[in-house]
Amino acid sequence: MRILVVDDSRTITTVFGARLVEIGHEVVIAENGQLAVERFQASAPDLVLMDIEMPVMNGFEAAKQIRAVEATQEWAWTPIIFLTGSDTPENLVMAIEAGGDDFIPKSAPEGVVQAKMKAMARIAGLRAELSLANRKLEAQASQDGLTGLFNRRYMDLRLDHQWGEAIRCGAPFGLLMMDVDNFKLFNDHYGHLAGDDCLRAIAATLQKVVEEVNARRLAHDAFVARYGGEEFAMMLPRCTPEALAEIARVTVDAVCRQGIAHARNAEWGVSTLSVGGVHMSRAEGALAQLFRRADANLYRAKQNGRNRAEL
Ligand code: GH3
Ligand code: MG
Ligand code: MG
Ligand code: MG
Ligand code: MG
C-alpha cells in the first residue's frame, strides 16, 4: 500500500515511516494538515494515518478537505485512521465526524495499528471491486444486447442533454430515423436468427458511418442508437442541412452496397433501409416534435418506394 503518514513530530514520521517501509509499504510524509491535503491529491495514497494536533492545519480539518476532494470523484474513498496522543472520547467523536474511519491511541501496541490498517485495506479493496463492477454494469446498461449500439434508454438520456444544449445555444440539429425495409419478409424467408445477423451487420455499417461523420466533423458528437426492433436513430448535433442530406444518402447507399441477400426485397434483392431526416437551423420546441417530423419523412420514404431518404 501507499500510505500517507501525517504528523508534526519528525520522530513519529521517521520512526513510523521506516517501520512501514520495512514491511513493504510505500510511505509519503506530510508535516501538517495542509501539506497532507496537497500530498493526498498528488500521490493518491491507499490509506492515511494522521495526527490530530498539528500547526497550520489540524487533522480534523485535513480530513474534511480530503473528503471534499473525494466528493467530486465517483466511488472515491480512502481510509483515514487518526493516530494520536490525545485519545479522549471527544476527539474520537470529532475524528469520525470529520470523515475519519478509525482512531488509535499512539500508546497502542504496534500490532494493533497493523491489524486496523489491514481491516481498512480489506474494506477499500471490496469497494474498489464494487466500483469496477458498477462501471461494467453502467456500460452494459447503455448498450443494446443484439447490436452493441447504444440502446434506447441511453439515447434518451444523451439526447435530452444534447437537445437542451442545442436549445440554449440556438444551434442547428439534425436527426435521422431509419427503418429496415421489408424486414418481416426477411425473417419469414431466412428465419429469425438470420434476421438478427442482418440487424447486427446493418448496425455495424451505421456505426462506421457515424464514426466517419465525427471524424470529418460533419456534426458534433454524433451517435447512432437502436431505437427499437429494426429501427435506428442517428443524432447529428450542429450539422448543416447539406451535411444531413449527404449523411442520409451515404447511409442508404452503404447499407444497400453491403449486399445482404434479401430475395423478397423488391427489385434490389438485398437488404435496404429507408430514412426520414429532419433538420433545424436553430433548435427549439419539444424533442417529440422533432421525432414526429422525422417519422413523417420516414413514412414518405416508405411510400415513395423504400431504399431512399426523404428530408
Ligand atoms: P417496412 O419496409 O414497411 O418497414 O416493412 P417491415 O416488414 O420492415 O416492417 P414491419 O414493422 O411489418 O416488421 C418489422 C419486423 O421486424 C417484425 C419483427 O419481427 C422484426 N424484428 C423486430 N426486432 C427484431 C429482432 O431483434 N430480430 C429479428 N430477427 N427481427 C426483429
Ligand atoms: Mg501533533
Ligand atoms: Mg419498423
Ligand atoms: Mg421495417
Ligand atoms: Mg413497418
Structural account:
Helices cover 52% and strands 17% of the residues. It has 10 helices and 10 strands. The strands form 2 sheets. It has a 5-stranded parallel sheet, with helices on both faces. Helix 7 packs across helix 8. The chain is elongated and about 90 Å long. The structure holds 3'-deoxy-guanosine-5'-triphosphate and magnesium ion (4 copies). One magnesium ion (MG) binds next to strand 6.
Strand order of the largest sheet: 2-1-3-4-5
Order of helices and strands: EHEHEHEHEHHEHHEEHEHE
Heteromolecules bound: 3'-deoxy-guanosine-5'-triphosphate, magnesium ion
Indicate the percent of residues in helices. Answer: 40-55%
Query: What is the overall shape?
Result: elongated
Number of strands: 10
Which descriptors would you attach to this protein?
binds magnesium ion, 10 helices, binds 3'-deoxy-guanosine-5'-triphosphate, alpha/beta
List the helices and strands and how they pair.
Elements: E1 2-6, H1 10-22, E2 26-30, H2 33-43, E3 47-50, H3 59-71, E4 80-84, H4 89-97, E5 102-105, H5 110-141, H6 152-169, E6 173-180, H7 183-190, H8 192-215, E7 223-228, E8 231-237, H9 241-258, E9 273-280, H10 287-303, E10 309-310
Parallel strand pairs: 1-2, 1-3, 3-4, 4-5, 9-10
Antiparallel strand pairs: 6-8, 6-9, 7-8
The structure holds 3'-deoxy-guanosine-5'-triphosphate and magnesium ion (4 copies).
